[in-house]
Specification:
- This protein has 7 helices and 4 strands, in the order E-E-H-H-E-H-E-H-H-H-H.
- By secondary structure, it is of the alpha+beta class.
- The strands form 2 sheets. It has a two-stranded antiparallel ribbon.
- The radius of gyration is 17 Å and the shape is globular.
């Protein structure tokens, strides 16, 4: 299962979208939820996202921060080190989002669906 969530800078859950099958791409889920429209209506809104939302970051570069693309293997060593540092900083900025994700997984009713080894066949039969 996959859910789009929004948290504040302290990791508090502000909004949780509809649950979707895990095979739905992040970009498709955001469009379905109307998130791009919120960025259009609220130009001061800012977000930090993971790699799955790179399209959203490309569409709203001044509002959405996504991790940088990994340099090619033959890129100079300095470029690879710079990428690692930028990636580390962006990851640290997203820690609050990961805390909100973890909070969702701790909710007792959801543990049935987010536990290890769960497959759609097992969920359907339960």
């Amino acid at each position: 299962m996959r859910t789009s969530i929004v948290s504040d800078g302290q990791g508090r859950l502000l909004w949780s979208g509809a649950d979707r099958p895990g095979r739905v791409h992040d970009r498709t889920a955001t469009c379905t939820e109307g998130i791009p429209e919120q960025f259009r209506q609220h130009p001061n809104l800012k977000a930090e996202v993971d790699e799955g939302y790179r399209g959203l970051a490309n569409e709203f570069p001044s509002q959405v921060g996504a991790p940088p693309k990994k340099p090619k293997e033959d890129a100079p060593l300095g470029e690879q080190y710079a990428w690692r540092e930028v990636r580390r900083r962006q990851s640290s900025a997203r820690d609050c989002v990961e805390h909100a994700n973890a909070e969702l997984r701790q909710w007792r009713p959801l543990q049935r669906y987010t536990g290890p080894g769960q497959t759609p066949a097992r969920l359907a039969g339960s």
